[in-house]
């Protein structure tokens, strides 16, 4: 079972620039730049939660209680594995050498003639990984811009119970 990821190195850039956000909300002044920058982060966070994957490069740690879970990582768009840490049967912390495993898509698999080490019962295996796409799909970026404009235009609660443009743009990008 995978536990929720923890961000250890936050994103350093957003998939939507301030200039793109300004253009979307049709403002050519800088008075609202701080607010728009916040809305960019809010929109990215919303899309990440909606799609189940990260959109801005970052380092995360995820924990699991079984080597079997490596067949399907709980985070999508993994660029690289930084480390895999575990506690061996004697209680000593260990780091799995990268000669034992390799990253294949959204799975960590054993290399030829390797096996997973024994772990201390009830201990967790911690995977540290760099996640995020090198670029995002145009429809995902547009969904973020639509969300930013909605939040900028209407700063109050709205009924969003129906199917929206935001939903239709992202429906094919959900990661389960």
Q: Could you describe the 3D structure shown?
A:
By secondary structure, the protein is of the alpha+beta class. The chain has 2 domains: 88 residues, Phage gp6-like head-tail connector protein (Hypothetical protein yqbg, Orthogonal Bundle); 69 residues, no CATH class. It is 28% helix and 22% strand. The chain has 4 helices and 7 strands; from the N terminus they run E-H-H-E-E-E-E-E-E-H-H. The strands form 2 sheets. The protein has a 5-stranded antiparallel beta sheet, with no helix packed on it. Strand 5 and strand 6 form a beta hairpin. The chain starts with 5 loop residues before the first strand and ends in a 6-residue tail after the last helix. The model has no long low-confidence stretch (mean pLDDT 91).
Helix content: 25-40%
Please compute the radius of gyration using only Cα atoms: 20 Å
Mean pLDDT: 91
CATH architecture of the largest domain: Orthogonal Bundle
Strand content: 15-25%
Low-confidence stretches are none
Beginning-to-end CA distance, first to last residue: 14 Å
CATH C-level label of the largest domain? Mainly Alpha
Cross-sheet strand order for the largest sheet:
1-2-7-3-4
Organism: Mesorhizobium cantuariense
InterPro entries: Phage_CHP (IPR011738), Phage_gp6-like_head-tail (IPR021146), Phage_HK97_gp6-like (IPR006450)
Protein name: Head-tail connector protein
């Amino acid at each position: 079972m995978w536990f929720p990821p923890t961000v250890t190195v936050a994103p350093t850039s957003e998939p939507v620039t301030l200039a793109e956000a300004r253009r979307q909300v049709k403002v050519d002044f800088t008075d609202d730049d701080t607010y728009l920058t916040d809305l960019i982060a809010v929109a990215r966070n919303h899309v990440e939660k909606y799609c189940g994957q990260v959109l801005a490069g970052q380092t995360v740690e995820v924990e699991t209680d079984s080597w079997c879970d490596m067949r399907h990582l709980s985070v999508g768009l993994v660029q690289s594995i930084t480390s895999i840490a575990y506690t061996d049967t004697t209680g000593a912390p260990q780091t799995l050498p990268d000669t034992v495993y390799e990253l294949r898509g959204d799975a960590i698999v054993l290399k030829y003639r390797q096996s997973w080490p024994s772990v201390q019962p009830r201990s967790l295996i911690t995977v540290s990984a760099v996640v995020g796409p090198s670029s995002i799909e145009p429809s995902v970026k547009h969904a973020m811009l639509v969300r930013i404009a909605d939040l900028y235009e209407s700063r109050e609660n709205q009924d969003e119970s129906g199917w929206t443009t935001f939903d239709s743009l992202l429906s094919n990008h959900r990661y389960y």
